[in-house]
Write a structure and sequence with these properties.
By secondary structure, the chain is an alpha/beta fold. 57% of the residues lie in helices and 11% in strands. It has a single domain, classed as Rossmann fold (3-Layer(aba) Sandwich), CATH 3.40.50.300. Belongs to the DCK/DGK family.
Length: 207
């Protein structure tokens, strides 16, 4: 049986990944894998003191994403189902490179490759890019208390990291189809025509 398509939606914090993933999954009749965020016990501490809590935070995310890919995504894909996820495993390195330093960064890289190198990889990636005002507005609208202490400077640096990392990922995985969505110009929630255009591009890559 042919494996199903694996679609990942990526972008910085507040870009709208979970919303777009849910909308695509609904239209495609596909299950959706959502990353665990608010359940991370280190997130609030991290936003208050990034240096002290970054390793614990990133390890929690890495281990949970590994388990989701291994236990949820892989069986569905191997059974021929298409799966939509609101993250790409590569985000572990994007965030880890930003938050970790020295020996902790190197240990994290080693653990990342040990866990993730044999996991199923998305064949379609949707990258939602957005500027800082857009992200701050959306973060404020969704009202997660733990995010209210987030340093805008950290978010701004993440935007830069994604702008570098996504083209690098495309070069590393030339067989993966990439769809870029400008979150500052496109409102796929309020504008159905704009969402249909994204959906159309995804379906083209599924053929």
């Amino acid at each position: 049986m042919r494996p199903g398509h694996f679609i990942a939606v990526e972008g910085p914090i507040g870009a709208g990944k979970t919303t777009l993933a849910a909308m695509l999954a609904r239209e495609l009749g596909a299950p959706v894998v959502n990353e665990i965020v608010e359940e991370n016990p280190y997130l609030g501490k991290f936003y208050q003191n990034m240096e002290d809590w970054s390793f614990q935070l990133e390890m929690f995310f890495l281990c949970n994403r590994f388990k989701q890919l291994e236990d949820e995504a892989r069986p569905l894909l191997e059974s021929g189902r298409t799966v939509v996820a609101d993250y790409h495993m590569y985000k572990n390195l994007i965030f880890g490179e930003r938050t970790l330093n020295g020996s902790k960064r190197e240990k994290y890289r080693q653990i990342y490759h040990l866990l993730m190198d044999d996991q199923p990889r998305p064949d379609i990636v949707i990258y939602i890019k957005a500027d800082l005002p857009t992200l701050l507005r959306r973060i404020g609208m969704r009202g997660r208390e733990i995010e209210q202490a987030m340093d805008p400077g950290y978010l701004s640096r993440l935007i830069e990291d994604y702008e570098e990392a996504m083209p690098a990922l495309a070069r590393r995985e030339p067989g993966t189809a990439f769809v870029t969505v400008d979150g500052g110009e496109i409102d796929f929630v309020e504008n159905p025509a704009q969402f249909r255009e994204i959906l159309s591009q995804v379906k083209e890559h599924m053929q």
